[in-house]
Automatic annotation (TrEMBL):
Family: Belongs to the diaminopimelate epimerase family.
Gene: dapF
Presence of keyword Isomerase: yes
GO molecular function: diaminopimelate epimerase activity
Enzyme Commission number(s) of this protein: 5.1.1.7
Catalytic reactions of this protein: (2S,6S)-2,6-diaminopimelate = meso-2,6-diaminopimelate
The organism of origin for this protein: Formicincola oecophyllae
GO CC term (a single one): cytosol
Marked site positions, Could be important to modulate the pK values of the two catalytic cysteine residues: H171, E221
Protein's name according to its UniProt entry: Diaminopimelate epimerase
This protein's pathway: Amino-acid biosynthesis; L-lysine biosynthesis via DAP pathway; DL-2,6-diaminopimelate from LL-2,6-diaminopimelate: step 1/1
Coiled coil: none
Amino acid sequence: MSSQPPLAFTKMHGLGNDFVIIDLRQSSVPPQGGRLPPHLIKALGDRHQGVGCDQLVMLNHPTLEGADVLVRFYNPDGSEAGACGNASRCVAKMECARLGRDAVTLQTARGLLPARRLEGGLVEVAMGRPLLAGSDVPLAPDKQGQATDFMTVEALGQQLEGGACSMGNPHFTVFSPLNLDEGQLAALGAALEHHPLFPERANIGFAKVIGPHRLQLKVWERGTGFTPACGSGACAAAVNAIRRGVVARDQPCEVAMEHGALLVDWPSDSAPVLMTGPAVTVFEGVLSPAGLAQQTGAAKGRSHHD
Ligand SMILES: N[C@H](CCC[C@H](N)C(=O)O)C(=O)O
């Protein structure tokens, strides 16, 4: 392990949802099948022994015509996510700077996502059309025929009203008014994330409608827990609110989270969801071979108890 070469990374965030971004096109650590080994993903995500992040993002050479960069997202539990809105804005900003352009196209598991740099440090990403069928979320096979806009799901003895969709990753947005403290809400988030209705688990949004084009949102993320903001969750919340008729689609919806708001525009059913918000570079760093070896060992040790 002491022969492990240094590993360069960039730390960025979007509304406090933070990322360690590793460019495998330049990394000296040989990727295994285009990704870092899972124990290293866990070690880097550890806020005490690693760098700490809500998601680890890996960049590589694109394989599709028209794409500038291949992007893969990982949760700190080692699982892969098909989409991550806040990290997509961060990567778009990095790639715009690298290529000296104002627009780039990201290749993700979801497909090609065009993105552009706007005034004031904002970045817009076209997140694709939301997938609304039960089989696309996905819901459990025997529940896939049910409507995904008006759903009632039972968890921890509560009947929760909400809607589900996929933005390339599964989301369930709860619209029921809840009077719970942070710990109770976390328990509900975890119960819904692992609910048998969602065989691939789900990101759980707790939304409050605060105006005809305004939502307040808190998201319990699959594989991560509560984060200060979730870009794909904000898109899903706006989409589900529009489908339920509680938000109007004639203008973009402002989705307010802990540290600020994202603008989400879904003007028609056939349109892609446009998400706009900030992307901030915090620092660039290099993990020392010794640090990496120690963290790797620690994470391996911990994983015995997972
Ligand atoms: N923070 C992300 C979502 C991460 C996705 C993840 N937690 C999952 O789908 O497993 C966002 O801004 O969209």
